[in-house]
Amino acid sequence: MAGTDTGAHAWGLKYDALVGGRAGGAGLMEAATAAIMGAAQCSDLLATTAVNHQNADQQSAMNNAGAPAFPPTAKPMFLVPAIPSAEGGHSDVPGWWHTIQAYVQGEMWPNGHQDKLRAAADAWHGAARELRAAADIANDGVIESVRAQKSPEFPVAATNCALERDSLKAVADGFDAAGTACSDYAQAIDDAHSKILHEMAALGATVAVTEAVAAVLIPFTAAISEGVSKVVDVARLVATGARIANIIREFRVAAEASSLPTASALGNAVRAVGELSPLLSARAQLFLAEGAIPGLLGTEGLDLLSRPYIRVGTRQAVEAAARKDARREVLHQRYR
């Protein structure tokens, strides 16, 4: 969508670094994925904590014959989206470009897709709004509800929820920066096109006047009139080409400036997500009256990120042990 000209190449390199989503990338897609997985991790850990409290209450009762509760299935993995490079697009140029191309000092017509860039900007801003809405949900009710619970683990849980909220907002800011970069670049292309067309219109008017002068000279000498026409035309082409070359160079500067805010936005997002590392590497643990259940967790995820789930064999072993313990308790009560 950025185009294939030199300005597109410079802008596309910075945009691609911001977005990520390719092998070895460390951009917004990776940060957003970690933030989303952090939200899922918060949910899974809170669910497991609630089940631990439920089991503690249940198993502390006399004559308890019920099987222990289990947390719901872990949230599914959210994989890093694959984002294509921004550089590329059509190589079309206006039909008249060949008349001035030799005089623009090697510069290229800016051929980015303004419509695609603006559509991408809308998508980025829309995604940012969704992330902020999710952060607001956590901020408006979840964090205070967790903090109000009376148990040693809940202050840490509330802190993790607050860090997750902040990471969502930081990634949303990065999304907005990407959207602004796209719309600013599209506007830079529009501005360059408008200025180039203005120069070509002025050139066309000059050529028309030159042809009129040459026509006036024809009755006197055809050779002189033809010479005047060619000299004036070439001089005007060189001057116009130089001005167009300068316009395109200014466009490249504007294109680079449109991508400057993205570096700080990406840095803020990466730092916020980095603070989630303890949360992302946490391991949920299910407890019964006898203590922790071994072998509860599997490991799958992104780098250190683990997704807790209960193996079928573990679940069956725990339930069978609970039933045996319940039968022993009944016999003990009956024959003591």
TrEMBL record:
The identity of this protein, by name, is Outer membrane channel protein CpnT-like N-terminal domain-containing protein
**Source taxonomy lineage?**
Bacteria, Bacillati, Actinomycetota, Actinomycetes, Mycobacteriales
Q: Boundaries of each Outer membrane channel protein CpnT-like N-terminal domain copy?
A: 96-217
**Protein's organism:** Mycobacterium kansasii 662
Return the InterPro entries for the record. CpnT-like_N
